[in-house]
Amino acid sequence: MKANRREFWLDSIFGTAFIFLLMWTFYSVTAFKVFDLFDPIGDALGDVELTDVVFSQLREPAVPDDRIVLVNLGRVNRADIGYMIDIVNQYEPKVIGLDTYFRTPKDSAVDAIMEDAFSRVDNLVIGSILQNFNEEKLEFDSLGKSLPRFTQHAETGFVNFITDAQTQEELKMTREFTPKEMVAGQQELAFAVKLAQYLEPEKVDRLLKRGNERETINYRGNVMDFGASVYGTMFFALDVNQVFDQNFDPSLIKDKIVIFCFLGEYLGDRLTIEDKYYSPINSQFAGRSYPDMFGGVVHANIVAMILNEDYIDAMDDATGAIIGVLLCLINVAAFSYIYRVYSKWYDGATKLIQLVEVLGISFMNVYVLDKFNYKPELTIGMVAIALAGDSLEVYYSVVKNSVTGLFKSRKRKIKL
């Protein structure tokens, strides 16, 4: 009896190890692009997460956040940027952020107008770009900044987003951001973090004390998007002509965070994809056709999350892996029992159990994120469960029988 029990648990452990070996093999093969045939499907669905349904469908629309105002830069030149900043600055914003940077000189008169406007802003943040990540030092080698004549009147914050896209034309989904990065031994804060620091410095301190290298962006809404998301307007935005005509209530600006950024050729422009990203609140969360959120609005969502301290906590990779191994071992033990005792029912019973488990875990992931702002990471466990039934049959019929046969063959040779 003890021998049978010992053999049962050894098979369960070895079966679990075999499943994880298969998972590693599949991952390695996929990494080498063997399945290029399926790339069109991957392009449409590869960057979709089940939890997107929480952001795009389940949440109640958030109350518009009047602490953050966006100003569309459109295609204006540097002189016009200077004029627009002067107009906005007279209404006493808490801080002005420029989600762009100015690397090269233009016409000297035009640059002088913009520089002069910068010099009159009490709190100004200009975007910077993280460049050349050093794998050995785990930091960036350099920081792309605007010309010194502009940065002398401002602080900087990096505007890089975390995305797998290599070009503008590729799918660009941004779900996370890094609050800070090291650049040649110096700390640089993210653009949104720097802006929030002017309004609520103690909340930024608490964000940094969380110690997370990455934070999940808790998206709450967009500017006027004409149906790109299911929510109404979350952030107020001014177009170029509204600023020049001063067609806005001064209270919209006073003591607020004002982000100058590109929001299209005009407010509501859905065709321009420059500096535009897919977000989880996209109303078409699977097989997306158009990106729905400009970069400046992504920054605004991050600022709002910091000001509200409305963070999403995520399960760390190590915990997810441990839970995945345990889930796999439990399933292998259960399936091994069915294989030994109810072999005729094996295929149907294991498939049904797998289906119920995967659906149950999927529902739990969505529910936990929606209700508790916590994002479980059980992908390894779900893949292991999906592979367990068929893989265990291969283990018993091929792997174990082959090893057992080889062992018996060697034993007979020794006796001879």
From TrEMBL:
The chain crosses the membrane at residues 7-27, 318-339, 351-368, 380-399. It comes from the Bacteria. It holds the Pfam family CHASE2. Keywords: Membrane, Transmembrane, Transmembrane helix. InterPro entries: CHASE2. Residues 43-334 form the CHASE2 domain. This is CHASE2 domain-containing protein. It comes from Imperialibacter roseus. The lineage of its organism: Bacteria, Pseudomonadati, Bacteroidota, Cytophagia, Cytophagales.
